[in-house]
TrEMBL record:
It is found in: Cytoplasm. This is Peptidyl-tRNA hydrolase. Keywords: Cytoplasm, Hydrolase, RNA-binding, tRNA-binding. GO terms for cellular component: cytoplasm.
């Protein structure tokens, strides 16, 4: 069993915000792999399915970002899972738009969702960081993360989210390098096709 959780804020008001890219990614995984309908449980929306003989739980905490750990710890305790059986997908200010990085452990870098998870569950979990870019002026950070992606940003980011969804089973099986290679290669191919 493996938990794949995306971070975001619940409600239509926030659904297209940069801060909600974790939710966007989870929704694409849910759609691409034909997961069953969402259920409300553990202060979250969850859906379960077997992919490549591994039971996957998709999780979207509905507690608002700064309480994300409350939902995750409920799931971990209920299923008696270790934190190593979790992948957290979230937005990353310190990466340019669409850049992906995998990381296990470490600090929260001011991300309130990660801070909540680290406080409630511990820090030794894997993260898929999705770059949303950082505004030059620090005063605009909150406005930046709580604003929607521009159409030009969507055209860059959304195909990447689709590629993540397609290859997410590789991350569950700890094929991290292969996952990143496939996602990058597909993105490069898409860019070449668009430019022709």
């Amino acid at each position: 069993m493996f938990i794949v959780a995306g971070l975001g804020n619940p409600g239509n008001k926030y659904s297209e915000n940069r801060h909600n890219v974790g939710f966007m990614c989870i929704d694409r995984i849910h759609s691409f792999h034909s997961f069953p309908s969402w259920k409300k449980k553990f202060s979250a929306e969850i859906s379960e399915k077997h992919l490549d003989d591994i039971r996957i739980i998709l999780l979207k905490p509905q507690t608002f970002m700064n309480l994300s750990g409350k939902s995750l710890i409920e799931v971990i305790n209920f299923y008696k899972l270790s934190l190593q059986k979790c992948l957290i997908i979230h937005d990353e200010l310190d990466l340019s738009l669409g850049i992906l990085r995998l990381k296990t452990g470490g600090g929260d870098a001011g991300h309130n969702g990660l801070k909540s998870i680290s406080e409630k569950c511990g820090k030794n979990y894997k993260r898929l960081r999705i770059g949303i870019g950082r505004p030059q002026n620090k005063e605009y950070v909150i406005k930046h993360v709580l604003s929607d992606f521009y159409p030009s940003e969507q055209s860059v980011l959304f195909p990447i989210l689709d590629n993540i969804a397609r290859h997410i089973p590789l991350l569950v099986k700890k094929e991290d390098d292969l996952f990143l290679n496939y996602v990058v290669q597909r993105q490069e191919l898409s860019s070449k096709i668009i430019s022709l």
